[in-house]
Amino acid sequence: MTADAALRTAAGLALIFVASAILSAMLWRLARSRMRRERWMGVNYRGQRIVATSGLLVVAIGVASSSVVAALARRATGWFVYVSNPMDRSSAEMFEGLGPLDLIPIDALRTPTAASATGAAATALALMAFGLLGYRDDTRGGGDASGFVAHFLRSLRRCRLTTGAQKALGGAAVALLSVQLVLFGNVAALWSSMGWSDGYSVMRSLEHLVNGSHESWTVMPWLRGGAVVALAANLLNLLDRAPGRATKVALAWWLCGLVPVAVFGPAWPQGFQFAGVGTGGLAWQSPALWAAGAVGAAVGLLRSELAEAHMLGDTGVNPLGAALGLATVAMSPASVEWVVLIGLAVLNVASERWSFSRVIDAVPLLRWLDRLGSPYRS
């Protein structure tokens, strides 16, 4: 990546992040009294009743910012374009005059701007869906079960899904859909290209998909990416046991894991070009931009969260983790993605046995970082 492209990408990242942080802080000051409705209140770790769904602001600002990025990146291209040819045959004329829901011919390659527009739109979808699932758990969940195993065991005993189990299953479905859009584009175009006319065609199509011989769609990257997104959302939920902890982890993930790759790294094989086209001197093609708004909004609420005026709740931390996971999937080669997936899986499984809070308190550096800025936990 050239120095000019890196500078433009960094400027775009900084603009979205700072604007989202300022906006979320302002909105909290304006809306905090209105958010103190009974349904949105909850009990924190000290037994105090505070606003427990301030993550609604994170979702709203994250969706707005990713929608802006999608609109800026879209330009003259279509929204949902299926990737079928790894060769660079992109052409602006190919996409000219298409509406937002028009399908590109199956042999067309989506341009970097079309890929980024699709990914940003998929991020907005993931933020809204995970936010809705988290909100349902915050407002209707009993709070008496924790972890995958506990939720599903309780669901079996009651013969109905708990809100936590609904969130887990719904989150997995949303994760797979968003990853499909990010990596491969329009589901309808893929479906229509397979020719499900008879039993033989169905079996051949499934064989091609599993073996990776049907165009560029393969089942392993899709499942792996979906697992990363779902586990990332759940990990931030598991870390949200103290004021500001999930936000600090999300900020570290974005700053240390996504921003350096977006600014200094090369394009990965998925077809993303992180900075090739600019609008008004800024670049809008980096997947790190998709999560910038949500992370910035959470950081804007960090000071008041540390003061224990509110907490993001599942409403905020689940979509925040999903957005980070989705950007990671888009920016990472398979080797890095496997490492991330294994790390997330280990942490999620470990949470069933060990308390993250106890581990953090046992390590001096982690304990200092965890309590940094908190007047009640120094």
Topology (SSEs and partners):
Layout: H1 3-31, E1 41-43, E2 49-51, H2 55-74, H3 92-95, H4 112-140, H5 148-158, H6 163-184, H7 187-192, H8 199-211, H9 219-239, H10 245-264, E3 278-279, E4 282-283, H11 288-300, H12 302-306, H13 313-331, H14 334-350, H15 356-362, H16 364-371
Antiparallel strand pairs: 1-2, 3-4
Helix pairs in contact: 1-2, 1-10, 1-11, 2-4, 2-11, 2-13, 4-6, 4-13, 5-6, 6-9, 6-13, 9-13, 9-14, 10-11, 10-13, 11-13
Percent of sequence in beta strands:
under 5%
How many H/I helical runs?
A: 16
Q: Provide mean pLDDT, rounded.
A: 76
Query: How far is the first residue's CA from the last residue's CA?
Result: 43 Å
Based on Cα principal axes, name the global outline.
globular
Please estimate the helix content: 55-70%
Number of domains: 1
Unreliable spans = 76-109, 195-202, 208-215, 267-281
Rg, Å, rounded: 21 Å
Largest sheet: 2 strands, antiparallel
So what's the oligomer here?
Answer: single chain
Strand arrangement across the biggest beta sheet: 1-2
Secondary-structure element order, as H and E?
A: HEEHHHHHHHHHEEHHHHHH
- Main structural class: mainly alpha
Strands, count: 4
